[in-house]
Design brief:
By secondary structure, this protein is mainly alpha-helical. It is about 80% helix and about 0% strand. The longest helix is centred in the last third of the chain and has 62 residues.
């Protein structure tokens, strides 16, 4: 890997260590703030007196601002330097979370969530780009494995437990409060790495048309994927309008980026001429689908079907963090010490995720942590094999000037892939639950002897505990209806787990085919250029 274009920096070892630790803690602040709504939604809605329509702004505002920040990160880094952008974004995230602790007014909280999303996007891009530029290429497997602990492992496994514990013991404000010491520690560490002056980004002119188009695409795509299921997708005129806006703005943005000068456009699409990046960008959608999709599906099943508390649901994912970290560093050692190509562990990641989803598809309403733990551990190990390899494949073949664009676009792909995964699974579970309920209800008829015996047995048990017989009969019928709904939802979740298995079954050959096709196209382009 010594022939790769990233050179060794002259930064002192202590400063390098301080930079790495500061970048990880900065990424951890984004992980905590970014996933706060996954479990604290109802608590925040109750305290802010917000309806579902009003509350959705917090979700959309954060994610859309984060996507926009990914796009603007190259310009910000070029204007303020990578380390300056990272420090400023970390300070903004810490301040926004500190203010959120004392905020119970919806509009103010929305503004703070937008600031958190924008700061999170900038700090993720600037931190990872800075690490790629400051550290030598041969050290990148270990460095990126360490960075992934804060950027990938934490939101997938660690923060759900922390959020659940804080919600069960104190309140949602403490989730934001937990960011403050981490942000301050990150700022101190980044200040101690001020000698990292070898890492700079190209200075760019601000692209007003590109920024406007990117913002329109980010907002419309985020709202569409976040609320499309609730709005009944294409059956709703507002959704059709969002599809038109998203499609038109995306096409115009691509055309504008291709026609504009390289130093005057928001996106540098020329890096797709690099085969490693083009393949990695496609793979980032699959990785995002796997990470965010499964991170939504498992806690949702645990809370809605198994009736776990937020703390218990978080505890379910916590052990997988150990497997996640273990396979991250195993992959890093295989690449760094043994000299294996990064792509060697991708099949293990894909097969591991398929195995985990297949195992989870056999869960029932009586399952517990011991029943689901093997699948959760396999999932954690698979994510470790997948994410580090895809990151290295995507980034290590880029030049120094292209890195910030590559990191930004890679994060855009992963985020949108995750949004698509969550939107698909939400819609799938809702539709499957309705269908399952209709099928099961067809067998629960008043004249069915087994149903009548079950109602009579339950009624007698309730009456034996002091309930009047008429009320006991009505309560028995209601209990059967409730059990029917639980069973319908359980089957829907199992089918959803299996659908993710089928997704990877189809995605694996598509990734292999895309790798072959991209390689051939790049080779033909080089031959044409030489001719």
């Amino acid at each position: 890997m010594s022939d790769l274009p990233i050179e060794r920096s002259r930064v002192l070892p202590l400063s390098r260590t301080s930079l790495l630790a500061g970048a990880v803690l900065a990424a951890l602040t984004e992980a905590i703030a970014g996933t706060v709504l996954s479990l604290a939604r109802l608590d925040i809605m109750g305290d802010t007196y917000a309806s579902s329509d009003e509350f959705v702004r917090l979700d959309v505002g954060y994610t859309a601002a984060k996507l926009l920040a990914f796009g603007l990160a190259p310009w910000i880094a070029g204007r303020f330097t990578l380390q300056g952008a990272l420090s400023a974004a970390t300070a903004a995230m810490t301040l926004a979370c500190a203010l959120s602790v004392y905020c119970s007014e919806l509009n103010t909280l929305f503004a703070l969530r937008v600031l958190q999303g924008f700061a999170g996007g900038v700090l993720l891009v600037s931190a990872q780009t800075l690490l790629f530029q400051v550290f030598a290429a041969r050290d990148q497997p270990i460095i990126q494995a360490v960075f992934a602990i804060g950027a990938v492992v934490a939101p997938a496994t660690l923060t759900p437990f922390m959020h659940g514990w804080l919600l069960d013991t104190v309140s949602w404000q403490w989730i934001f409060a937990a960011v403050i010491p981490l942000g301050l520690a990150a700022l101190c560490l980044l200040a101690g790495s001020s000698n990292a002056d070898a890492a700079e980004a190209r200075r760019l002119r601000f692209d007003w048309p590109g920024t406007a188009l990117f913002a329109a695409a980010a907002v419309s795509i985020t709202y569409l994927l976040n609320q499309g299921n609730r709005l009944d997708w294409l059956r709703n005129d507002n959704v059709l309008l969002l599809v038109l806006v998203a499609g038109a703005s995306t096409i115009l943005l691509i055309a504008h980026s291709l026609r504009g000068k390289r130093d005057a456009t928001l996106l540098d699409l020329g890096i797709f001429g690099n085969g490693g990046f083009a393949f990695g960008f496609i793979a980032s959608f699959v990785a995002g689908f796997a990470l965010l999709g499964s991170s939504y599906l498992i806690p949702a099943f645990s809370i809605s079907i198994l009736r776990m508390t937020p703390t218990a649901a978080g505890t379910l994912l916590l052990p997988s963090s150990l497997m996640f970290v273990a396979t991250l560093f195993l992959t890093a050692l295989l690449i760094r010490r043994v000299g294996l190509p990064p792509a060697i562990t991708v099949p293990f990641g894909v097969l591991g995720l398929m195995c985990a989803m297949w195992m989870l598809s056999g869960s029932s309403s009586g399952s517990g942590i011991p029943d689901m733990l093997p699948a959760i551990l396999v999932r954690g190990a698979a994510l470790g094999f997948l994410f580090l390899s895809i990151t290295l494949i995507t980034m290590l073949s880029l030049g120094r000037a292209e890195l910030v664009y590559g990191v930004a676009l890679f994060n855009v792909g992963r985020q949108i892939g995750g949004l698509i995964g969550i939107a698909f699974l939400q819609t799938f579970i809702e539709d499957q639950t309705a269908q399952n309920r209709a099928v099961l209800a067809a067998h629960i008829t008043p004249g069915n002897m087994e149903v009548m015996e079950r109602i009579a047995l339950t009624s007698r048990r309730l009456a034996a505990h002091g309930m009047e017989m008429g009320a006991a009969t009505r309560a028995s019928a209601a209990l059967i209806g409730k059990q029917l709904m639980v069973q319908a939802s359980t089957i829907a979740f199992n089918t959803a787990f299996f659908s993710v298995f089928l997704f990877f079954l189809g995605a694996a050959p598509c990734l292999i085919l895309s790798k072959i096709v991209i390689g051939k196209l790049i080779a033909r382009r080089k031959l044409a250029a030489e001719a």
